[in-house]
Specification:
This protein is an all-alpha fold. 73% of the residues lie in helices and 0% in strands. The chain has 20 helices and no strands.
Length: 376
């Protein structure tokens, strides 16, 4: 009996060594980018119950690495590893249930597996679980639980969690509203390259919310976000160059950033670019026709300032034929959109107009509103 036990033990150790060896070969191949060999080794180990191999096999099926993408196979192997307690597999399985990949979409199952992984410290599972509590998917909506899991992931350095936790503090969801904490977490996420956070850090430095007002810091963060294509950052950086806040005043740089934002359809940037053409700042030469074109585009997007500025061009016949009817119409629309000076300007123009012309302008304004400013 004793000899049999020893013989069995030797046989078991030999099998374990072979098992581990296949998995390690798979890992070495995977890390070197040899997915075909990695898949072969993982498949052999997975069939023997190796939890790590089962996870990687599911992962490779999920992303189509070394094998055609196959969500059903990904679910099969992820489930085997998840049931053995592998946190990464539990997270992947939760993700698949959340997205309906390889299985029917099932938020409750997604929450179940994300919870298991999150409780083991998987940061991305913590983020996913937080999002589920945030939106009430698979669990009752609970901002406190969302904040709890965002915090756990954020403290592990997860950039998505840091940005979303900042947003919770910003809005007072699940935590007391705290702009300092919001600024802290936005900054951590921004320093890791999160574009949304970089823009938000810039805004907070610009207005002094949660941090001391600092135009130079604002300009630096707007620049980082603007260079990565954020249209709002490009517009705001243009404004800072226009006004000389945090950077030397430079109308050409202002125009350059307005142009970048305009190419993405940014309405306020269109208005400011029009201002540059109307005033001849940062562009050569002064060009009222170009100003009119950009004012018209911004006006069509509902920018009250642009609508008022377009009205002024009609008043003065700059870039367009002089026309009090269209001037009245645009002043009227701008006033309706909250432009404080527009109603006074409209009433001044009305003094130069006939009753019939005023009636026509009012009718045009109503029609323009019905068409949502298109073709006015």
């Amino acid at each position: 009996m004793k000899k049999l036990t020893i013989a069995f033990l030797l046989l078991t150790l030999s099998a374990l060594t072979s098992w581990a060896g296949d998995f390690q070969k798979g890992m070495s191949a995977y890390e070197s980018g040899d997915y075909t060999t990695a898949f072969k080794e993982f498949a052999a180990s997975a069939e023997q119950g190796n939890v790590g191999a089962q996870y990687y096999l599911g992962y490779m099926y999920y992303f189509g690495e070394g094998v055609p993408q196959d969500y059903k196979q990904a679910e099969k192997w992820s489930t085997k590893a998840a049931e053995q307690g592998n946190a990464d597999a539990q997270y992947l399985l939760g993700d698949m249930y959340g997205n309906g990949e390889g299985v029917p979409q099932d938020y409750k199952q997604a929450a179940k597996w994300n919870t298991k992984a999150a409780e083991q410290g998987n940061a991305w599972a913590q983020v996913s679980l937080a999002l589920m509590y945030d939106n009430g998917h698979g669990v009752p909506q609970d901002y406190k639980q969302a904040a709890k899991w965002y915090t756990k992931a954020a403290e592990q350095g997860n950039v998505r969690a840091q940005n979303d936790l900042a947003l919770m503090y910003d809005n007072g969801h699940g935590v007391p509203q705290d702009y300092k904490q919001a600024a802290k977490w936005y900054t951590k996420a921004a320093e890791q390259g999160n574009l949304t956070a970089q823009y938000n850090v810039a805004v907070r430095n610009y207005i002094g919310q949660g941090v001391p007002q600092d135009y130079k810091q604002a300009a630096q963060w707007f620049t980082k976000a603007a260079e990565r294509g954020d249209a709002n950052a490009q517009y705001n950086l243009g404004v800072m160059y226009d006004t000389g806040q945090g950077v030397p005043q430079d109308y050409k740089q202002a125009v350059n950033w307005y142009v970048e934002a305009v190419q993405q359809g940014h309405a306020k940037a269109q208005n400011n670019l029009a201002n540059a053409y109307a005033e001849g700042k940062g562009v050569l030469p002064q060009n009222y026709k170009r100003a009119m074109q950009w004012y018209a585009r911004a006006a069509a997007q509902g920018v009250a300032e642009a609508q008022s500025n377009l009205a002024l061009l009609y008043v003065n016949g700059q870039g367009v034929p002089q026309d009090n009817v269209y001037a009245h119409m645009w002043f009227n629309l701008a006033a309706a959109n909250g432009r404080e000076t527009a109603s006074k300007d409209r009433d001044m123009i009305a003094k130069r107009m006939t009753t019939a012309d005023i009636s026509k302008a009012q009718s045009l304004a109503r029609e323009c509103l019905k068409r949502n400013y298109k073709g006015c």
